Automatic annotation (TrEMBL), chain A:
NCBIfam families: SigE-fam_strep, sigma70-ECF. The lineage of its organism: Bacteria, Bacillati, Actinomycetota, Actinomycetes, Streptosporangiales. PANTHER family: ECF RNA POLYMERASE SIGMA FACTOR SIGM, RNA POLYMERASE ECF-TYPE SIGMA FACTO. GO terms for cellular component: DNA-directed RNA polymerase complex. InterPro entries: RNA_pol_sigma-70-like, RNA_pol_sigma-70_dom, RNA_pol_sigma-E_actinobac, RNA_pol_sigma70_r2, RNA_pol_sigma70_r4_t2, RNA_pol_sigma_r2, RNA_pol_sigma_r3/r4-like, WH-like_DNA-bd_sf. Residues 19-85 form the RNA polymerase sigma-70 region domain. It comes from the Bacteria. Pfam families: Sigma70_r2, Sigma70_r4_2. GO terms for biological process: DNA-templated transcription initiation. Belongs to the sigma-70 factor family. ECF subfamily. The keyword Transmembrane does not apply. This is DNA-directed RNA polymerase sigma-70 factor.
UniProtKB/TrEMBL annotation, chain B:
Keywords: Membrane, Transmembrane, Transmembrane helix. Residues 29-47 have a biased composition (Low complexity). The chain crosses the membrane at residues 60-85. The keyword Transmembrane helix applies. This is Uncharacterized protein. The keyword Transmembrane helix applies. Residues 1-50 are annotated as: Disordered. It comes from the Bacteria.
Length: 168, 462
């Protein structure tokens, strides 16, 4: 695929620029959502493909990045609902994971959560979104967000007190 | 019990580590990553491949799914304006002129480098306090430009560092001429860890002779390291370590001389190699002069040699640590040094050649045409393979010529500069009774200030 041809189809250089500029950040997000690099790449590529379809509309009306991230979060849940992938996604990123903050262990335990719970946690603690926005993105009620988060934190033995106040 | 902070830290740490290549240094050749790792550079390819595969699947379903998401995104965006997501696309998104499919060739929209990379384009005086003219050499930090000050044209006499954040210059030291050498000119300056180094020649006589100098980075007196004659004096590029001055010669081969003084010696196994930036040197495949492709990059410190493969039809393939650029007719081709992520840049971006600016950016020429009086048409364009961003250098003058300069460092420079007050001027006169007209383009004005693009001030891709 030559880039010139891609430009032509999308009517400008911007989509390509967007992929280049935001790709790394999106891949990081995909990694936190899915827990392994292959699924992260899958998520990002599929979401970008959808973005490219609607680029001309989205680039003006919305924040394209928010759009992609929304697709990714939804996709992450629905894919696994549909595909029931077999392999466990508990790969610890390569490199040195010192257990100073017990982050390695917690990361492994995140893989044991149901997808929806994990996604809620990622949106809340990694994306730093209020529960109402999480509800909008995932198309669920605010109460469901809270109960999903509560259950997930319980499984991970995370005390839910500290940051609770500024979420409502 | 764990805290929410632990969870936040875990997610962030994982995210940060996700995008990094494996930690163990030296376990893999440079540029290679484990399969399946998160490589943003190949994203465009992957998306394109997916598009092709999708054509063979059920289109109707995909269209419905996409439409559903658009509505959701619309709702999300309204919430977002409250400040939820901080991430903004790093590129400005232009308004479309119309909503119909584009017909014909898309016009390549290029914005000036200063708009694309604010902070990387700065102004600096074109002269020192005593009136000597500055010649920018290279950026040594995002806010510092190494310059030589010249007493007369191309006669460098002093090394200075101009700090663009404070607008002040600092003299590093004098660049003296050796005694008894007529027509001596000091040439390209190299930036080492401890020292600045340069070489000098007497280019206007037939002597095959050159000498080498160093000066401490913190400033002080320049010291001549040694002199060479014969083939060894055909210096093309130098490097400086803490204990040696290194250079390659035009016919190929890399030599070194101890800083403490001593005899020059050839570095083993460097036949046909040309320094790019110490410790890297490049070898070339056979080809037409000026069109040869680099075919290997050698680290002279470790001895590691990386083979570089050019795609068929490529000429002038030129590599730095991570990226290579070359020409395919009037197009520019980019690839990683391991041959992956090979792409042709869009039409209207012709490879200008030369080395990679700041070891990362390609210099390309815009296609001719367009109306410089009305549109912004850069003289050259700088392309960032890490982000795909393109910045225009200077602007084409509707009247006559437009000039710009590169830093004169020995290793690939990080800067380009131009004088925005200099205006092209075209003068025509009738030269024969038959009415033949001869025109001459010159430049007028300027001389006070340079506009400098320092690629060191462009942030690495996030």
């Amino acid at each position: 695929m030559q880039r010139g041809a891609l430009f032509k189809r999308l009517g400008g250089v911007e989509f390509e620029d967007f992929v280049r500029a935001r790709g790394p950040a999106l891949l990081r997000y995909g990694y936190v959502l899915s827990g392994n690099p292959d699924d992260a790449a899958d998520l990002v590529q599929e979401a970008l493909l959808k973005l490219s379809d609607t680029w001309r509309r989205v680039r003006n009306k919305d924040n394209p990045e928010a759009y992609v991230r929304t697709i990714m979060a939804r996709q992450h849940i629905s894919w696994w609902r549909r595909r029931r992938r077999e392999h466990l996604t508990d790969d610890v990123p390569e490199g040195s994971y010192t257990d100073r903050h017990a982050t390695g262990e917690l990361w492994r335990e995140l893989a044991s959560l149901p997808r929806k719970q994990r996604t809620v946690l990622v949106l809340r603690y990694f994306e730093d979104l209020p529960d109402q926005e999480i509800a909008d993105i995932l198309g669920i009620s605010c109460g469901t967000v809270r109960s999903q988060a509560f259950r997930a934190l319980q499984t991970l033995r995370v005390r839910p007190a500290m940051l609770e106040r500024r979420r409502t | 019990m764990r805290s929410e902070e632990d969870l936040i830290r875990t997610l962030r740490t994982a995210a940060d580590q996700a995008a990094q290549p494996p930690a163990a240094p030296g376990s893999l050749p440079p540029g290679s990553l484990r399969p399946g790792s998160l490589r943003p550079g190949s994203l465009s390819h992957a998306v394109a491949a997916r598009r092709r595969a999708r054509r063979f699947r059920q289109r109707a379903q995909v269209a419905l799914a996409t439409a559903a998401v658009v509505i959701v995104a619309g709702g999300t965006a309204a919430v977002l304006s409250g400040g939820g997501w901080q991430a903004q696309p790093a590129v400005t998104v232009d308004e479309p002129t119309e909503d119909k499919p584009t017909v014909g060739e898309p016009r390549l929209q290029v914005r000036p480098a200063g708009e694309v990379w604010p902070g990387a384009v700065v102004k600096m005086p074109a002269k020192a306090a005593d009136g000597w003219k500055y010649r920018p050499v290279t950026g040594i930090s995002p806010t510092e430009v190494l310059v030589t000050a010249e007493s007369s044209f191309e006669k460098a006499g002093r090394l200075e560092v101009y700090d663009t954040s404070t607008g002040t210059a600092r003299v590093v030291g004098e660049m003296p001429a050796p005694e008894g050498v007529k027509g001596y000119f000091s040439q390209a300056v190299e930036v080492g860890e401890k020292y600045y180094a340069w070489y000098g020649e007497s280019p206007n006589n037939r002597d095959k002779w050159a000498d080498f100098w160093i000066m401490p980075r913190e400033g002080g007196t320049a010291r001549q390291v040694g002199e060479v004659t014969g083939d060894l004096s055909r210096v093309e590029r130098i490097g400086v370590t803490d204990d040696h001055l290194v250079w390659s010669v035009r016919q190929g081969g890399v030599y070194r001389i101890p800083l403490a003084g001593g005899a020059p010696e050839k570095i083993d196994d460097t036949d046909g190699l040309h320094l790019t930036s110490w410790p890297l040197a490049a070898g070339y495949a056979p080809g037409k002069s000026g069109e040869k492709n680099q075919n290997r990059v050698v680290n002279l410190e470790t001895g590691q040699s990386t083979a570089v493969e050019a795609a068929p039809g490529t000429t002038q393939l030129t590599c730095a640590t991570d990226w290579c650029f070359g020409a395919q007719r009037d197009r520019t081709v980019v690839q990683r040094i391991d041959g992956s992520d090979q792409e042709q840049l869009p039409e209207g971006m012709e490879f200008f050649g030369g080395e990679l600016l700041g070891e990362r950016f390609a210099l390309v020429s815009p296609s001719s045409g367009g109306d410089p009086a009305g549109d912004y048409i850069p003289v050259r364009m700088v392309y960032d393979p890490a982000t795909g961003q393109i910045g225009g250098v200077h602007r084409r003058s509707p009247e006559g010529s437009t000039s710009y300069g590169f830093g004169t460092s020995s290793s690939p420079t990080t800067i380009m500069y131009w004088d925005e007050d200099k205006k092209g001027h075209r003068e025509c006169r009738t030269t024969s009774p038959a009415g033949n007209v001869s025109c001459q383009s010159t430049e007028r004005g300027g001389g006070k200030e340079f506009t400098v693009l320092n690629t060191l001030a462009i942030k690495p891709a996030s």
